Automatic annotation (TrEMBL):
It holds the Pfam family PEP_mutase. PANTHER family: CARBOXYPHOSPHONOENOLPYRUVATE PHOSPHONOMUTASE-LIKE PROTEIN (AFU_ORTHOLOGUE AFUA_5G07230), PHOSPHOENOLPYRUVATE CARBOXYLASE. This is 2-methylisocitrate lyase-like PEP mutase family enzyme. SUPFAM superfamilies: Phosphoenolpyruvate/pyruvate domain. It comes from Mesorhizobium robiniae. InterPro entries: ICL/PEPM (IPR039556), Pyrv/PenolPyrv_kinase-like_dom (IPR015813), Pyrv_kinase-like_dom_sf (IPR040442).
Length: 256
């Protein structure tokens, strides 16, 4: 456990506004070892690529036991902190969320993403509901003895087209960030947000380190650093690019 604790503390220290940690998301032990070799400071799974790699759709379709076994194998394969994506915690009830967090930490993870969208439904959980779920996750972290990093994700921006992102959505995100911080979150994840002005305003408005996904419409790494971002992840992009390359090569070999 001492090693896991040290890795968790190290992972926390990597979140610095203006000097973001870059997480090039992985899906299995092989991809994790490759990213480690590339010079990564930490390893992060993404729910979409992990599910796809095992033949499932995203949205908690991959059995939790299988996802947990995958985390264990990734942790055993690398010498870096490993944070994982537990989506919505595999259940709405706080006690289910707490159990999922406990299992993820027992599998060796030192952090996790936890989202506020209603998995399998539509829209987001009300702030009050999500706060109780984050509180349960934070309590599970405390009980474990592992100072794991709870990255609270909001899907506000993913559920709206980039061209509709505005001050009103930003204010909603800020309200959630403040509530999530009080509930025990250590970071705030705003996937889908790409507007420079809104990103900078978010980073200035909240104390939590902000996590942005490097999508096509998002500013490059250096600019995100200038805007105050503390964590840059890549979500499903690496897996999609890898499979596109693989399919192209396969077609060439098969038709060649």
């Amino acid at each position: 456990m001492t090693e896991q604790i040290n890795r968790a503390r190290a992972f926390h220290s990597l979140h610095v506004k203006g000097n973001p940690i870059v997480l090039y998301n992985v899906w299995d032990p092989g991809s994790a070892k490759t990213i480690e070799k590339a010079g990564a400071k930490a390893i992060a799974t993404g729910s979409w690529p992990v599910a796809a790699a095992f033949g499932f759709a995203d949205g908690e379709k991959i059995p939790l036991d299988l996802a947990l076994e995958n985390i264990k194998r990734i942790v055993a394969a690398v010498d870096l902190p490993v944070t994982t994506d537990i989506e919505g915690g595999y259940g709405i009830a706080p006690e289910i969320v707490a159990r999922t967090v406990t299992l993820a930490l027992q599998a060796g993870a030192i952090g996790f993403n936890f989202e506020d969208q209603i998995v399998g439904g539509s829209g987001l959980h009300d702030i009050a509901v999500q706060v109780t779920r984050i509180e349960a996750a934070a309590a599970a972290v405390k009980a474990s003895g592992i100072p794991a990093f709870l990255n609270a994700r909001t899907d506000i921006f993913l559920k709206a087209k980039p061209e509709t992102h505005d001050k009103a959505l930003l204010e909603q995100a800020i309200e959630r960030a403040h509530a999530y911080e009080k509930a025990g979150a250590h970071g705030f994840f705003a996937p889908g947000l790409g507007d420079e002005g809104l990103i900078e305003a978010l980073c200035k408005a909240i104390a939590l380190p902000v996590n942005i996904i490097a999508l096509a419409h998002v500013p490059p790494r250096q600019r995100l650093a200038e805007l105050g971002v503390a964590r840059i992840s890549h979500g499903p992009v690496p897996y999609r690019q890898m499979t596109e390359w693989l399919e192209t090569k396969a077609r060439q070999a098969i038709s060649g």
